[in-house]
Every structure is written in structure tokens, then in C-alpha cells.
Write a structure and sequence with these properties.
The chain is an all-alpha fold and 409 residues long. The chain has 24 helices and two strands. The protein is globular, with a radius of gyration of 25 Å.
């Protein structure tokens, strides 16, 4: 009996270890991790920045989750490779490994067609870092839910998009917004009143000149504009181009048709740089790369320095060269674009009290978003075996900002 009592503690330890091996996995970061805890962390990641939820952003915890799901992939996911890819991409995204995360999320989106959740997470991360950078992807996320509203997002995510997206597509989404969303108390303004204002909005000459409200108009509004303007002048043509290149509408064939009606040498005010880059984007959308470069060469000397960065002019030129197969030139202009953009810290928006305080340089993370998700021309680098050269340019410029909190959580 005495001998049995001596070996009992050893037996208990072995039993405990056996039990742990079934329910826990030992990670290098924080020791034993329970499966249920990992699932809870993954659920928070999949919901992202939303009302009543905060994703995991601490690097050590994300490292642990990554280690766990790779070690126990078969148990957690079985044959569900797409969910594994999605969760893995989110770990990289919230770890601020942006190039890797964007590429993985694009792969996930192309495999599954899940535009809504892809752009929701990209948009929220961009918006949380620098206000306005996340507007377009967030709007695309909302629009992608129309056939199955509110899925695949939930109401908390939808209300988050509405609250933080200054370019929310009210007219397009109004028929789908339920009372449960419209009556949510988290919003500090009357959502129904906002929708009514947008629906009652009428285009004016001032709107056309400022290229205002292109994000929330409908095709019927544009057709009415054309009907009421038999002789299209440059201001009206530029508005039509802006409408058709906008991510919410995106009909590059129509945009290019209107671009062909315009005098390419005209430096129309106001916002002349914006008008020229819209022309460049219209032609990029239909693979007319020579015209993109002609516009650049003719007008670049007139561009103010901040607009070259803010409008991603060099990125457009880089995409055109990539489309033409000249990867050396494409890389040269890609370097120029990343060199004059910045990664901003969220607190910068709190110090803005006037337009003069607003940053003048483009947001590097939005540039990266466009490179991965918008301009397919950059796929030529990987096809030609040049991806490492492009990656080096991107990561070297991102490294200039590795002192920021976003990279050191």
C-alpha cells in the first residue's frame, strides 16, 4: 500500500498529461493552448473591428494562434482549406504583415467569391490606421451583400461600415437596410434622415465641377444628367468618367468612351490633377496603356508635388508599364510611388482642425491595396518570376515606418 501511494502522484501526472494532450496543444509562445480558446480568438478575428467586438492584435497572441492552427489544421478545419486560408490571412493582416495578408485575402476571394468579408477586413484595417483610406473597400463589402443581405456579414459589421464609411453607398443599399439596422442606437445620427437626404439629392453645376456624390448615385441619375445635357462639356464629361471608374459602379468601357470625347490636353479646373488621373484610370481599365503614358508625359510638369503622391500617379504609370511588359520601367515608377507615400499613425487625424492640417502625401497602405486588389497588371511580376524584386521595393519602404505602434503591438 505504501508503494502504491508513492507511485500515485506519478500516475496522476501521467493522467493529467494524457488529458492535456487530448484537449491542449503546447506552443512555443505561451505553453499549453486549449482548442476552445483558439476558436474564440478566431471568431473575434473573423468579426474584425465591429461594434461589440475587438479582434486580437497583440503580436504574441497572434503568433500563438498561427502556431496552433498550423499544428492542428486537420482537427480544426478538416478539408475546409478556404476557411483555413481566410483565418491565416487575417492573422497576417492583424499582425500588420500587409503584403502577405493582402495577397492571401485576394487568393481567398478569388477561390470563394467572398468579396464582402475580404473587403470588410481590408477596409476596417485601412480605416483604423488612416481615416478615409478604408472607404472604398468598406463600400464594396456592403454592396457585395445585396443578394443575401445581411450575410455573409452580420448586423454589427454592417452598422460599423455605415458609421465609419464617409462614402457609404446609401442609394444602392437603402432597399436592403432593415429596421434592426436603421434603429440601432450606436449611431449618433438619424440614419433614415441621412438616406432621405441622399435620395432627394439633385445634381447641380457645383456638384459636377467638384465631382461630388459619384459614389452614391445610380445609373438612372446619370442617364437623367445626360438627357438634360445634350451638349456635353468637359466638366460634364469628367463627371461621367469619375462615375464610371468609381469602384461602386466600375464600367471602364463606358468610362473610356467618355474619355475619348474629351480633349486630353485640356487642364480643366477645379481639381485638374484629379481629372487627369481619372482619365489615366479609365484607360488602364481597358488596357490602353500607351494613352495612360501619353497623358502622364503631357501633364506631369503641371502636377503639384502633393497630388503626385496623393493621386498615386506613379502607381498608375507603373501599372501601365507592367501591362506593356516593361517590368524594369514598372519597377522604377513603383519605387517612386512608394518612396513618396507614408504610413500614418491613427492619432494624426485627431490633430486635424482644418484642411491645411490634412496630410499631403498618399497613404502607402492604400497604395498597396490598389496594387494587390485593383491593378491586375502587377500580376505580371509573379508570372515573369520577378515577384521578389517587387516585394523588395514594397517591404523596404514599409520598413521605414516599422517604428510605428501598428508594427509593435
Amino acid at each position: 500500500m505504501k508503494k502504491f501511494l508513492q507511485i500515485l502522484p506519478i500516475f496522476v501526472v501521467i493522467l493529467m498529461l494524457f488529458s492535456c494532450s487530448r484537449n491542449y496543444t503546447k506552443t512555443q509562445t505561451l505553453g499549453f493552448v486549449k482548442k476552445d480558446n483558439i476558436k474564440a480568438y478566431l471568431a473575434r478575428l473573423e468579426k474584425g473591428y465591429a461594434f461589440h467586438n475587438m479582434p486580437v492584435t497583440e503580436k504574441s497572441t497572434l503568433d500563438e494562434i498561427r502556431e496552433y492552427i498550423n499544428a492542428r489544421k486537420d482537427i480544426l478545419y478538416g478539408d475546409d482549406e478556404n476557411t483555413f486560408l481566410f483565418d491565416s490571412a487575417l492573422i497576417e493582416l492583424y499582425s500588420s504583415n500587409f503584403l502577405k495578408a493582402f495577397r492571401m485575402l485576394r487568393e481567398y476571394m478569388e477561390k470563394t467569391g467572398d468579396t464582402a468579408r475580404t473587403f470588410y477586413h481590408v477596409g476596417e484595417v485601412l480605416d483604423s490606421q488612416f481615416k478615409y483610406s478604408g472607404d472604398n473597400p468598406l463600400g464594396l463589402a456592403a454592396l457585395a451583400t445585396r443578394k443575401t443581405f445581411p450575410l455573409p456579414l452580420d448586423n454589427d459589421q454592417h452598422i460599423t461600415i455605415i458609421a465609419f464609411n464617409d462614402l457609404y453607398p446609401y442609394k444602392q443599399m437603402a432597399p436592403y437596410l432593415t429596421d434592426e439596422i436603421l434603429d440601432r442606437k450606436e449611431l449618433i445620427y438619424d440614419l433614415r434622415e441621412d438616406i432621405k437626404i441622399t435620395q432627394d439629392y439633385k445634381l447641380t453645376r457645383e456638384s459636377l465641377e467638384a465631382m461630388y456624390k459619384t459614389h452614391t448615385l445610380l445609373e438612372e441619375d446619370i442617364q437623367e444628367l445626360i438627357k438634360d445635357t445634350p451638349s456635353l462639356d468637359t466638366i460634364t464629361i469628367d463627371y461621367l468618367i469619375a462615375f464610371y471608374i468609381h469602384p461602386y459602379h466600375q464600367d471602364f468601357k463606358r468610362a473610356a468612351e467618355y474619355a475619348d470625347m474629351r480633349n486630353h490636353k485640356e487642364w480643366q479646373k477645379p481639381r485638374p490633377e484629379h481629372r487627369i488621373t481619372n482619365l489615366m484610370r479609365a484607360y488602364l481599365g481597358v488596357d490602353r496603356y500607351e494613352e495612360v503614358l501619353d497623358l502622364y508625359m503631357y501633364h506631369i510638369d503641371a502636377f503639384r508635388e502633393p497630388a503626385i503622391s496623393d493621386k498615386n500617379v506613379n502607381l498608375l504609370v507603373s501599372a501601365a508599364y507592367a501591362g506593356l511588359g516593361d517590368l524594369d520601367k514598372s519597377l522604377e515608377y513603383l519605387e517612386k510611388d512608394f518612396a513618396i507615400t507614408e504610413i500614418y499613425y491613427p492619432e494624426i487625424m485627431r490633430n486635424i482642425t482644418s484642411i491645411e492640417d490634412f496630410p499631403t502625401k498618399g497613404d502607402m497602405l492604400y497604395t498597396l491595396y490598389e496594387l494587390v486588389f485593383v491593378f491586375e497588371e502587377f500580376d505580371a511580376f509573379e508570372k515573369a518570376g520577378w515577384f521578389s524584386e517587387m516585394e523588395e521595393v514594397i517591404e523596404r519602404n514599409i520598413a521605414r515606418f516599422k517604428h510605428l505602434e501598428i508594427f509593435n503591438r
